[in-house]
């Protein structure tokens, strides 16, 4: 069972509203935490739903501690894949590096889980407690003394206590507040590409 994120503020107490941009891992986890702290949370997500796809993701170190605190670690463990070792090879089949360990059971210190399964767990943990607006984005922000006035791309305006930008690498929120994102990115000099192949010869 997914634990409730219902906060501990008593009935009748006004809950400050926060707006989160982006419903990826960061946005959904932030929504969970802020709801638990007592905020009234709305998440705007540009896509028509949570964005699915991708290969499995790794969960290790302090992320496991965070999932324990959220009460979601058992749900993640139940979906964990058998641990695997990955080797990175060059064209001569020489191993350049590796990650992970081999074994039949998922390790207790590192879990690998399908990206969509983690997304479902996080989504399920907040869906009943926060407002999710899909196909929506923030058009403009106006910071005031004690609030932020937000205009969404459908023209709707609202005043919120806090905005949290969880909208990925080329964050829309960061661009609106700080300007063109290119000043915050630094090309590391290479690209890499992951492809799942059914078998290697
Ligand atoms: C489709 C997809 C596949 C991925 N596959 C893998 C994988 O196979 N393995 C892996 O390790 N990691 C993968 N990742 C990366 C990983 O899941 C997370 O993206 C990463 O950990 C960062 O999470 P995040 O929540 O900060 O940002 P993101 O996951 O990038 O989430 C940002 C969210 O903000 C939304 N958004 C963007 N612009 C706006 C806007 N203007 N208004 C409102 N919402 C907006 C996006 O649609 C997205 O849902 C993938 C990400 C995506 C989106």
Description:
The chain is globular and about 60 Å long. 24% of the residues are buried. The protein has five helices and eleven strands. It is of the alpha/beta class. It has helices spanning 25-37, 62-70, 73-79, 115-126, 172-178; strands at residues 17-21, 40-45, 57-60, 86-89, 95-99, 110-113, 131-134, 138-143, 148-152, 157-160, 162-165. The strands form four sheets. The protein has a four-stranded parallel beta sheet, with helices on both faces. A hairpin with a 5-residue loop joins strand 4 and strand 5. It has two domains: 14-55 and 114-201, 3-Layer(bba) Sandwich (FAD/NAD(P)-binding domain); 57-113, no CATH class. The chain binds flavin-adenine dinucleotide.
In round numbers, the mean pLDDT is 88
Contiguous uncertain segments of 5+ residues: 1-6
Q: What class do helices, strands and sheet pairing give?
A: alpha/beta
Unique ligands = flavin-adenine dinucleotide
The biggest beta sheet reads: 4 strands, parallel
CATH superfamily of the largest domain: FAD/NAD(P)-binding domain
CATH class of the largest domain: Alpha Beta
Number of domains as seen in the coordinates: 2
Number of strands: 11
Strand content: 25-35%
Q: Please provide the ordered H/E string of secondary-structure elements.
A: EHEEHHEEEHEEEEEH
Computed CA radius of gyration, to the nearest angstrom: 20 Å
Instruction: Note the total helix count.
Output: 5
Helicity range: 10-25%
CATH topology of the largest domain: FAD/NAD(P)-binding domain
End-to-end CA span: 43 Å
Going across the major beta sheet, what is the strand order? Answer: 7-2-1-11
CATH architecture of the largest domain: 3-Layer(bba) Sandwich
């Amino acid at each position: 069972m997914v634990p409730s994120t219902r906060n501990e503020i008593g009935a009748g107490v006004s809950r400050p509203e926060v707006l989160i941009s982006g419903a990826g891992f960061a946005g959904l986890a932030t929504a969970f935490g802020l709801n638990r702290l007592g905020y009234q949370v709305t998440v705007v997500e540009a896509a028509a739903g949570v964005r699915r796809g991708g290969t499995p993701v790794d969960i290790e170190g302090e992320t496991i501690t965070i999932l324990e605190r959220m009460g979601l670690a058992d749900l993640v463990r139940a979906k964990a894949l058998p641990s695997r070792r990955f080797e990175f090879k060059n064209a001569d089949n020489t191993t350049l590096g590796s990650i992970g360990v081999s074994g039949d059971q998922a390790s207790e210190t590192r879990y690998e889980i399908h990206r969509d399964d983690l997304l479902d767990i996080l989504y399920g943990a907040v869906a009943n407690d926060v407002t999710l607006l899909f196909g929506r984005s923030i058009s403009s922000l106006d910071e005031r003394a004690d609030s932020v006035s937000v205009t969404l791309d459908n023209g709707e305006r609202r005043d919120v206590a806090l905005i949290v930008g969880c909208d990925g690498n080329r964050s829309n929120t960061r661009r609106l507040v700080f300007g063109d994102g290119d000043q915050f990115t630094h090309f590391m000099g290479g690209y890499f590409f992951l492809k799942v192949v059914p078998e290697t010869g």
